[in-house]
Amino acid sequence: MIRTIVLATQKGGSGKSTLAMSLAVAAQQAGETVRVIETDPQGTLSYWQSRRGLAEPLVEPIHQPSDLGRRLDALARGGVTLAVIDTSSGINALMRAAIDQADLCLVPARPCVADIVAAAPTVKIIRSSGRRFAFVLNQAPHRGQRASEAANALSQGDRDLADIIAKPLITLRNDHQDALAAGLGVTEFNDDGKSAEEIRLLWQWIEQRLAQGDTCHALRTAGAEAHSQMTNAGAPPLNEMSLSWDACL
């Protein structure tokens, strides 16, 4: 089974590509078989791959929405367990197609009110697709109250969003750009650094969310099958209290 995470936001400069490459490496180091899919014509991840050589995880550019689902199916048959999809800025058909394939969407945003507000159209698309998502507060300053201000902005705009912030936030440090230039993930570039620690913790948080999604999917499937069997047998429909799997929706 392949699981897919998608980094998406219409605002440029949020750090989607640097997060994608470092999360892909951290996931691979944690035991996943990873492929990175680049849908951004800017080609940041292709540049990273050119510096990296043939070291995995490999980057595959995809430019047509219709190719995305077929490629993910092929990767799953080939044993890939995690696909990390980097999208371009703006809203386009390829970004929408990526979101439709996502098990979890990550919305990177700098911890300031302007970036949170700018992400609203992306969140609307994700919600309309019924996909799970979380904000990743990225490029945070070393000191100050901006992270808490961003969290407050989320809760004031939409109380449901206050609990959808990935942990930890990612602090702005040179390690991220230096790793990109070297063709490395930040956990490869400086394994003992604070940036590497943050990325590993972020991957652990994401992994837990993906596992929750797997459990919910299994519960929904089991509940639907039980409902179908009882209906076919002429039994009364399941009442609301018996549909514990529905809590995962």
UniProtKB/TrEMBL annotation:
This is CobQ/CobB/MinD/ParA nucleotide binding domain-containing protein. The lineage of its organism: Bacteria, Pseudomonadati, Pseudomonadota, Alphaproteobacteria, Hyphomicrobiales. It comes from Bradyrhizobium oligotrophicum S58. InterPro entries: CobQ/CobB/MinD/ParA_Nub-bd_dom, DNA_Partitioning_ATPase, P-loop_NTPase. It comes from the Bacteria. Residues 5-158 form the CobQ/CobB/MinD/ParA nucleotide binding domain. Pfam families: CbiA.
